[in-house]
Amino acid sequence: MNPLPAMKLVPFRKRTSLESPEIAAAELQAMASLLPTDGVVFDVGAHHGSWTLCAARLAPGATFHMFEPDPEAYLILSETLRSRPAIRAVVQNATCGAERAWRPFHRYADFPSWNTVFRRTAVEEECGLNPPSQVQIPCFQLDEYCRDRNIPRIRYLRVSAQGAELDVLAGARGLLSDCRIDSLQFSYGGTFKDAGRQLSQAFELLDPLGYDLYKVTDAGLLYLPGYRPALEDFEYCQYAAVHSRLRCLTQGLAPVMIDVREQLSARGIVPKGVVHVGAHLGGEVSEYLDMGFEHILLVEANPVLAKGLFAKYGNLPQVTIAACAASSESGSVELHITTGDQQSSSILPLGLHSAIYPEIQVASTVRVPADTIDNILASKNLRPEQFNFLNIDIQGAELLALKGAKKLLSYIRAINTEVNFAELYQGCPLFYELNEWLKSHGFRVVSLTTPYHETWGDGFFVR
Fold first, then answer.
1. Which of 418, 354, 441, 419 is nearest to 153 (CA)?
2. What fold is seen in the domain 260-462?
3. Nearest to 294 by CA among 277, 319, 314
4. What's the rounded Cα separation, in Å, for the pair 302 and 337?
């Protein structure tokens, strides 16, 4: 058996001066490093709201969904939020779990912080506690909760559920598998033992879904590339899980995009033909030839760049060039050509892109012909069955191009495409929409990365 990769301490990216009698200093620093400034944040097991009060200071633009099952704690929480109207919050007197149901909730009169859905029989005997009272509480499944309320993405999920943390995550499996939860944290300790749960189960759930796990320590986030039995000590602490698409940003690594050669090789896909939409300067052509692609179709909408492609690659027998935009239908479109190296040019107007990269502006617009990829292939006397790989990088218009490639897609084994997690271009589909469309056509995402900025990156899909 190969040894696990070494653990690595990742210093906190940001620091905060916040202090709280209820929240440990290490947890506050982890929150400062991982919490977004806006978006949707969930607090499951909110109690009196101490965590959310701190989180709202760090993420002033966020909307909080809070769940507190204990009726008395819920009343205090509600009153706390009423006195702080600036915090946007939706509060539920409920818990979350693997399925929607009514669940018994055990309340210890003398130790209300021990209240739980899992009765602590061993602890009662050990500490001489009186038997708890019991109330029935509603339990939400997070997958269903977000679907019913049209919440496409949770930026941060905090779970403090007294031993039921894994149940909460099990009810969010759909969100997790579709990368609809960026980061999460959960409590671990003796309550896991009370509930008959183990930390290893968190690794078994989260690691295959693309999440990196970290232990929150005073010195930083301890990156754990794999479960180790020594971790199973049932000592109270916090763990964080961050989707691997954010690894470069979380760990301060040099940006690395998806290695196409590596991905194809790992899945036994022998290079045959590639359609590259948004070819730009054709920088990938030499690698395609080295990988053994026999047919290379380059599609480029920018007339100036297309002219350069013809001059550089027009005489290569393996290469065909189409000077047009790829879209869902034939016609013409306005191409917004940007400053710099023009890599941000798109048939969609700039959106959030202008705020993230203010140095990049639209320099000019030009009307260019547009056609479907299926029509482009036919016009170049190319057959769909000659191709098994599709590479798309057209700045937010990727789904339009895919919708015009339905004949080709039946022969495609893998797709590498730019993905967006925010509307960098006006009207561009977000990752979740692109992912749902590709899933409906038999593809699943196997690699995802956003190494330069959390809002955009690349996704690799296979059939």
1. 419
2. Rossmann fold (3.40.50)
3. 319
4. 8
| The two three-digit tokens of residue 29, written as one number | 């620093």
Tokens of 461: 């899909």
| 35, burial (CB in 10 Å: exposed 0-12, middle 13-18, buried 19+) | buried
- What gap in Å lies between CA 167 and CA 103, rounded to an integer? 12
Dist. CA 204–CA 23, nearest whole Å: 28
3-class SS at 303?
helix
pTM: 0.93
**pLDDT, tens only, 263-272:** 999 999 999 9
In sequence order, what are the residues at sequence separation of 6 or more whose Cβ sits closer than 8 angstroms to the Cβ of residue 288? Answer: 271, 274, 276, 296
Average predicted confidence (pLDDT) for the chain: 96
Mean per-residue pLDDT for 32-57? 96
Going from N- to C-terminal start, the domains of the chain cover: 8-251, 260-462
Model confidence at 122, pLDDT cuts 50, 70, 90, reads confident
Tell me if domain 8-251 and domain 260-462 are identical in fold: yes
Average pLDDT over residues 435-460: 97
How far is Cα 428 from Cα 336, in angstroms, rounded to an integer? 14
The residue whose two tokens read 């979740």 is 432
CATH superfamily of the domain spanning 8-251: Vaccinia Virus protein VP39 (3.40.50.150)
Burial (CB count <10 Å: 0-12, 13-18, 19+), residue 224: buried
pLDDT band at 1 (very low <50, low <70, confident <90, very high): low
Residue count of the chain, please give it: 463
**pLDDT, tens digit, 9 for 90 and up, residues 164-207:** 999 999 999 999 999 999 999 999 999 999 899 999 999 999 99
Give the β-pairing of 181-188 and 211-217. unpaired
38-44 and 273-277 beta bridge pairing: unpaired
Residues 6+ apart with CB under 8 A from 348: 336, 395, 396, 397, 425, 426, 427, 428
pLDDT digits (tens, 9 = 90+) for 399-416: 999 999 999 999 999 999
